[in-house]
Task: structure prediction
Amino acid sequence: MTSSPPAKRFDWTNLGLRVASAVVIAPAVLAAVWFGGWGYLVLIAIGVALLAIEWGGMSAPGSPTRVAAVVAAAVLVAVFIAYRGDFIWAWGAIVLAAAGAAVVARGVAERPADAAYGVFYVAPAAVCLVWLRATNQGAWWTLMLLAATWAADIGAFAVGSVLKGPKLWPRFSPNKTWSGFIGGLAAAMGAGVLMAALPYFQLNAWAAAAVGLAVGLATMAGDLWESALKRRFGVKDSGDLIPGHGGLLDRVDGLMFAVVVMAVVRLANHWGWGH
Result:
């Protein structure tokens, strides 16, 4: 495993580029979530393809195209099955597709199991995104997910940059601090409460705060997990697709964990919790 680099001072000159990228991307994402349908499916499919490309580049630099292709194909099979409403079959497809990805990657990837892991890493989040949007008030629940996730990222960045302090997990992510961690959780909880205050939710304020906390924790966990993966593969960023942010995986690593947690929360709410 590659040793982690030392912490460095944040490059504030890069902040404008990060904001500009978010201003361009966020409206397209919000529009796709709000209107749903094929536009939403296409957005997820594009995201899956880009994530697969980045995964192939990180995990199999000697044969990135083949690994990326098999991971993308495997995940998209599950996504399209889920879009048809066959969610149980979609989860079964993930297991079979992951095994198939490992078989196809044999002989071209240093660790064929990494191709299978790429499917397990990307597919559950993609399927949960499809399912969450398809539920009753799905657009609002998905928007709440995005609000809490983005708030966690922004809160952690802002508070951590200002207060600094002890490192959260210096072995894998030397720039993340406990102050940023707490700030991110507080911001996610606030976003959850604000979203639930809209007249479209049947979710009380305490439950909304709990949802924000759960999503915030998952977002932080996803971010740290991707940092560990990048250290394992010896790369600084998953790619360079988004100016100021790195690759798409660098931007949605927290969301990939958070959407699975939100799906569990949505199931619990369907059974009566939080009303």
About this structure: The radius of gyration is 18 Å. Residues 1-8 have pLDDT under 50 and may be disordered.
